[in-house]
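Figure 3 (text version): structure tokens given as input.
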């Protein structure tokens, strides 16, 4: 690399950091990850969120409509290998599969020329907090007192009352049916991305992965019969019979849509475009696999895709790195 190019790159990096709102830049990822440990305990070797999970592999094939919207190799139409991970929300590696928490699907698209797209998606159309500061507050309010092993319901109630942005997700998860399978629920990316087309057109989008065979949930009796640990085997058995497919659908923003706040969903009336199909074709037989060393950093995007102005992107990238460092240092378990 020529000297001038390095200087330009450094200047661009400095400007990018300088452009971050000061208040957001001050939230320490160490404090955030400590915050997860305060809620879930220090679960050595496990992710501080999405702790109970399993590796899988998939392929992705973009549609013509996807190719028109983004120049990314993701949408070239060629089969792209994907390293996937399914998990439950939160940092408890023994969480129950019938708990009223998110189901997650994290994906890493392994593209030609060393490019990749990493994403971590949840089974709710919005996130619980809008800013890194609010994330820290959310965690601190739910911290468990080491002396009693319990959190303080009054403190949580007070935080919820003071942070109405969290209500849509809290209410959604309280009411959402319990999925019968990791393959039978919608996964939202939640945050806003920019798609850049080969003709230079730029559009703001949000994406969802929707199971081709539709949604399936469990009745209360079925939940009792299935118990706390059925999702991994269920997915193994389902995929052994036939690949589990999801359509990747993007919503396209219109003028005035909120781009920088993941707690606010866009109206259902926004244009929806099917940009590709994901096909899960293999599930790990145990707790090992390629996904273990991946942190699914949502700022890793290929050319043709850019992150939007949501302040959570930087907070996620930095705290995922801290969590990855801790769990690898502890001998990563899943
Ligand atoms: C400031 C906001 C956020 C913080 C601090 C945060 C923090 C974390 C951390 C520390 C991990 C563990 C990373 C690892 O060890 O590899 C994680 C995993 C995860 N997060 Fe977040 N997160 C945030 C926002 C979000 C949002 C908005 C979404 C979804 C749309 C999301 C979805 C996930 C998923 C699905 C995983 C598990 C990924 C996997 O299977 O490896 N997070 N998060």
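Below: residues designed for each position.
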């Amino acid at each position: 690399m020529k000297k001038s190019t390095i200087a330009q790159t450094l200047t661009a990096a400095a400007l990018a950091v300088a452009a971050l709102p000061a208040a957001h830049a001050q939230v320490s990822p160490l404090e955030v990850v400590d915050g997860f440990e305060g809620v879930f305990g220090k679960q050595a070797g496990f992710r501080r969120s999405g702790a109970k999970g399993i590796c899988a592999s998939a392929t992705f094939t973009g549609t013509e409509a996807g190719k028109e919207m983004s120049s990314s190799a993701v949408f070239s139409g060629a089969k792209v290998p994907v390293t996937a991970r399914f998990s439950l929300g939160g940092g408890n590696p023994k969480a129950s599969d019938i708990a009223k928490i998110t189901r997650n699907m994290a994906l890493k698209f392994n593209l030609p020329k060393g490019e990749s797209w990493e994403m971590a998606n949840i089974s709710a159309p919005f996130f619980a907090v809008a800013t890194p500061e609010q994330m820290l507050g959310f965690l601190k309010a739910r911290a468990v007192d080491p002396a009693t092993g319990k959190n303080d319901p009054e403190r949580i109630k007070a935080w919820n009352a003071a942070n109405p942005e969290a209500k849509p997700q809290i209410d959604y998860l309280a009411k959402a049916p319990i999925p019968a399978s990791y393959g039978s629920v919608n996964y939202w990316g939640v945050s806003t991305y920019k798609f850049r087309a080969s003709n230079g057109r730029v559009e703001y989008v949000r994406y969802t992965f929707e199971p081709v065979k539709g949604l399936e949930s469990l009745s209360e009796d079925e939940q009792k019969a299935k118990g706390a640990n059925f999702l991994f085997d269920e997915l193994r058995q389902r995929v052994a019979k036939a690949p589990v497919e999801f359509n990747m659908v993007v919503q396209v923003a219109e003028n005035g849509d909120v781009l920088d706040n993941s707690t606010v969903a866009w109206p259902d009336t926004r244009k929806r475009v099917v940009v590709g199909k994901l096909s899960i074709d293999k599930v790990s037989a145990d707790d090992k696999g390629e996904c273990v060393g991946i942190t699914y950093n949502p700022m890793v995007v290929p050319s043709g895709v850019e992150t939007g102005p949501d302040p959570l992107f930087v907070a996620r990238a930095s705290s995922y790195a801290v969590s990855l460092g801790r769990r690898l240092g502890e001998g990563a378990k899943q």
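Residues 37 and 213 are 37 Å apart (CA to CA).
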